[in-house]
Amino acid sequence: MAAKEKQKEYQLVVFAIGDEEFGVDISQVREIVRLIAITYLPKAPAFIEGVVNLRGQVVAVIDLAKRLNIPSKPRGDNTRIIIVEIEGLTMGMVVDSVSEVLRLSSENVEGVPSVIETEVQEHFISGVGKLQDRLLVLLDLKKILTPDEIQHIEKTVVNQKTE
């Protein structure tokens, strides 16, 4: 290794879906809210739950478990909507629970090993964080939605505002 590289530190919001733990970069997270009433949208892809009114702003909400094609727990008191900003689009992601915000040194983050045990499609994953007794799947939010899906959500939100 070159002369002492400065270790990068990740600050992550940690959440659970089913039995798996995930982390996303805190810089993409605007806020975390309790589950609120979601207005269903006809003709939307199955993983798009609908839209919510967040202090006057219409925000599209996706069911992250459906998007990642993994089982989730029944919705309850711990269910949260993580409000994120991806490519200038504000949207919500429904997750089973949010547990913590943590710092993780880059020496504890590895690329995606091909043998990793996860139901999540590899292209959604930016790395794996190693904590003392657990592994954290790091999601690349920019890859969660395709450009076409982002465009669909933007159109949907605009249509909701005009109705």
CA-CA gap between termini: 58 Å
Residue windows where pLDDT falls under 50 for at least 5 positions: none
Rg calculated over all Cα atoms: 17 Å
Q: What pattern of helices and strands is seen along the backbone?
A: EEEEEHEEEEEEH
Strand order of the largest sheet: 8-1-2-11-10-9
CATH superfamily grouping:
CheA-289, Domain 4
Q: Report the portion of residues in β strands.
A: 35-45%
Can you summarize the main beta sheet? 6 strands, mixed
Estimate percent helicity. 10-25%
Number of helices: 2
- Tell how many strands the DSSP assignment holds: 11
Output the CATH topology: OB fold (Dihydrolipoamide Acetyltransferase, E2P)
CATH architecture: Beta Barrel
